[in-house]
Amino acid sequence: MTFSVNKKNALLVIGVLLIVFAILIVTSTTAWEYTNSDSFCTNVCHSVHPEEAYSHKTSQHARVTCAECHIGRIPTLKAVAVKSTHILHAWHMLVGYDRPLSSPSLKSSGDSCESCHSEQPHQFNSIRRSTKYDIDRANSKMDMFLVMHNVRGMYKDDPGKGIGWHTENEIRFIATDPLKQTIPWMEVMQENGDSIIYVDTANPLDESEIAGAKRHVMNCLDCHNRVAHPFPDPEREVDRALAEGKLNSTFPYVKARLVELFERDFSTEEEALQFVEEAWAQYGRDFPDLAEKYPEAYAKSQEYMKERQQLVTDLIVRSRFEDLEVSWRSFPDNTGHKDFGGCFRCHDGRHLSAAGKPVPMNCFLCHTIPIVMKEGDPLPDMRIPFGQSLPAGHYDPDFPLRHPDLLDDTCKECHEILKFGAGNESFCSNVACHGVGWAGIF
């Protein structure tokens, strides 16, 4: 009898322990999954940056969770160790801290991007078309065409060219700011094990600074740094909305008015919506002739404008945030070189080797010279070059800076009229090149 009672008690204890153990497993698993969710990251911890969650939803990586990039696709035990370091941030959440503009805990592309993207992608030259509208009455349309040199080696022994060169060669660099916008020193590793060191001659570091600085190994995220949280130039957003038909380009000065609207300050989304409503009302008062000459069409246009109010409000919210000192300009995008330094952080003509040679900044390395077409013009002949040779001067490492000095009569064999400027009257009068103030260089 005693044995039977003890056996029953033992079974009862084991049963209770199994239930408790099961509850712990379910609870811990649920807690683990929740702390890896976007809602936890954006609402519990990182509500300090509400615009980051907004931009993530509009990115091409909207279905990639926060944890997949910021923790990485790594083994669970390693992820637990990484996440345990985030507990230190809890104190700052309680006492408050300034809004950070960078993420020191962001994993390298090897632990995140390359879990989905191949380390050796098959890339090909491609034609890129971008559409821009002027701020005149007609919102004049202009298309720009580029052939992008994306080719890289398909096999290990096949060297990459163009933009793809960066994915095959190890580069180490020193950055003097958290956003890695200022790079005064870099080291390019050669196949034979040697290296070439380039220094910014306009802003050099001394030997002690170099010795004590952290050397970053360049990875995908050093250029593709806004792939999951894009904050584009609001003017580009308006151009895209016009090109996609979300905004009617036949409305007089619609782009100019929207760009002006983006410059206004606001505190809440409701206030931004009020600005948009007031702007549409003022627009109707400024162009009463539209209602008089085309009453039916104007009525439809008014309805169209009302439908677009939320669109324009979203555009404004994406360009200005709760803290008005933080805007889209606070988050540099390094994939290009128009709004921010981007490529020109290194390829600026000032980074020289010990032999006095600059880091190449030749336009032809990454793309062709842009061809600009106005509305109504025929499409250009955009054949993708293969094995095409250019005159020797075109391969000068700092050709964009020196091309006026390299000018001679042989240029006319290809370019005919050699008239510089931004009027787009000739090949050398190119608005896409000369009509832009390139960040970090010109």
Describe this structure in words.
The protein is α+β, with helices and mostly antiparallel strands. The protein has 3 domains: 2-115, no CATH class; 126-226 and 334-434, no CATH class; 234-330, no CATH class. It contains 16 helices and 8 strands. It has helices at residues 2-35, 38-45, 50-57, 66-70, 76-84, 89-95, 207-212, 234-243, 254-262, 269-286, 288-293, 295-307, 309-319, 399-402, 412-415, 431-434, and strands at 126-133, 141-148, 171-174, 185-189, 195-200, 216-217, 351-352, 371-374. A 5-stranded antiparallel beta sheet has the order 6-3-4-5-7, with no helix packed on it. Strand 4 (185-189) and strand 5 form a beta hairpin.
Biggest beta-sheet profile: 5 strands, antiparallel
SSE series: HHHHHHEEEEEHEHHHHHHEEHHH
Number of helices: 16
Question: What structural class results from the helix and strand content?
Answer: alpha+beta
Strand order of the largest sheet: 6-3-4-5-7
- What is the overall pLDDT average? 80
SSE layout:
Layout: H1 2-35, H2 38-45, H3 50-57, H4 66-70, H5 76-84, H6 89-95, E1 126-133, E2 141-148, E3 171-174, E4 185-189, E5 195-200, H7 207-212, E6 216-217, H8 234-243, H9 254-262, H10 269-286, H11 288-293, H12 295-307, H13 309-319, E7 351-352, E8 371-374, H14 399-402, H15 412-415, H16 431-434
Helix pairs in contact: 8-9, 10-13
